Amino acid sequence: MTTTLEETTENETKPQNTPTDNACQNTESSTASSLPQEIMNIMEFLSLNAKIMFKSQQRDEPELQQIDKLKVALDVYQRNPQTFLIRFGQYLEEKHLQDFARLSIADSDEEMHLMVKEYQEKLKTRQRDVKNRRYAALQKLIKEGEYFSEQEMMKRQPELYQELVGQYLSSKEKQQRDSYDVRNTTFSGILMHNLEQEQLNEVMKKAEQHVQEETIQSSSTKEEQHVEKGILDNFEKEEDEIPLNCRQQWGNFENEQIACSSSKIHLKKSPVKKKLNTTPPPLKDLITADERELLRQEFISQMHEQFLTGQDEEFDYTNVDDNAQFDDLTLINQDKEDKYFDESDDEEDAHDGNERNVDGCKPNKMEQDEESEDELDVYMSHLNKHHSLQKNN
After folding, report:
1. Where is there biased composition of kind Polar residues (predicted)?
2. What's the rounded Cα separation, in Å, for the pair 239 and 260?
3. What is the pLDDT of residue 5?
């Protein structure tokens, strides 16, 4: 088999792995395989975090792949676990910190254990902050009204909505729910709404079919259990109606059919009544208005719970979890007000000390009036500088 000139040139230009490179790769592979699985889980967890900068890159350089990030994290860990903890500790979760402290830190290394404890405290603070910020964002979205409106929640969770709310609505209520005010919109807005409404109707139709199938399946299962129970009860009743001597000494009769014929004839006279198949009434006619309202509140409560626990797939939590604007503004404003009034009290105390003249005598009426006017000017100037008035302006 001959080799062409092009193939020879191509093979020459391809970068060949040197024995040193192969040895390094084998060493990395063997070292990684010798690490505990918990440590490898930490490395993989870090490699999936897009917020971590594993190494500085130029603008034109391609983005690091996950395998490259994994190698960087492994290299840092193998060189110095303390450097690894300083660099990546803030991105680890509670379980990772526990595994790292157990597997990578000596019991006598108090400094490293203290670092892990500090990261754990920060993690608890972070979890509390995220929880509070999501709650503040929830209250804000509820107040604005759009994101947690019935229409928007129905779009995000059509099957849950249909199960708890939609299947109990009348045609008139559905029409009122889907109504659209065309007075304050453009023609393109109307077209867009109609398109979205058609798509939503398709989604709700599928959700309705799914809920109906589950309801029918649940009803048939209950009916089968009821029938089985009836058959079992009839079987036990048949056993009770068979003569005792026929059951106890069955093999001693010369003609068993004659001996038990009376019991069989008696059983034939009491056939099992067949259950008539009747169409059940609509579900909306089976529950009261109060029960419907309870189900609606249950749906809203579940939607709020999904938002707070981070299960709302339509919401970008990065805009809330890392946003200090959603911190407890009431507490922050209260601290500012306390500081302001403390400063005001200090100024009043200083003013009371300066009410007397240098000779220790009280000022006359004219001086008091002038000082009163000056005090008013100072007070009004100070009041105008108050942060609440500045916000209103």
Report:
1. 14-35
2. 12
3. 47
